[in-house]
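With this grant's support, we have settled on a layout for protein records. An illustrative entry appears below exactly as we store it:
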Amino acid sequence: MTQYIAYYRVSTKKQVGTNNISLGIEAQKTSVKHFIGTNELVNEYVEVESGKNNNRPVLEQAIQQAHKTGATLIIAKLDRLSREVSFLFQLRDRIQKSGVSIKSLDIPDLSTLNLGIYSTISQHERETTSNRTKLALAELKKQGVKLGSPKNLTTDAIQKGISSVMENARSNDNNRQAQAVIKNCIAQGMSYNKTADYLNGLNFKTRYGNSFQATSVMRLYDRLIKDLKLAA
């Protein structure tokens, strides 16, 4: 029987509801417990902190207990650790030196290589999202929309422009993350149906907010293969 220590994170105290447990944490807990099954969950650690803050005392406690007990540190998604490439690489080195095993449910075969690729892609997509927002604001300015004051920034034109850009960016980010999971699942011989169940267990949603089906997994996988061929 494998022993696990779970680490959950939400970004702000505003996300925390009654009983000091947020919906975001509950979703993470559901994914972790679904994966663990009959194995032992030694302890759970909850941290309320921004992903941009590298000071993580609760994460350090989880790593220390994992080291002492020999348990595997488990997280629902890699971005619950951090969205910063430098922090993830430092954490990787820290974990390797302590001999702690780590399991991230959105990357079934997490390795040093995958950690580097995934974290670099995540940072690139955040930068791309920021650039798209700036371009949208610049375009609105060209169209005569006045920018710069809180009053002006709440006009319908600005809201529609920014919402459209951000929604497209979010959909793109979600698709890329789902594709990373799908690629690993298919590589391990999982069927489209099994992969869809796995994605749903991790609380992934399609761009329209629906649960994954075999057909939606197949479409994303086919699109990924086409993109890789074009990039080759």
In short: The first helix runs from residue 23 to 36. Confidence is low (pLDDT under 50) at residues 14-21, 149-155, 164-171.
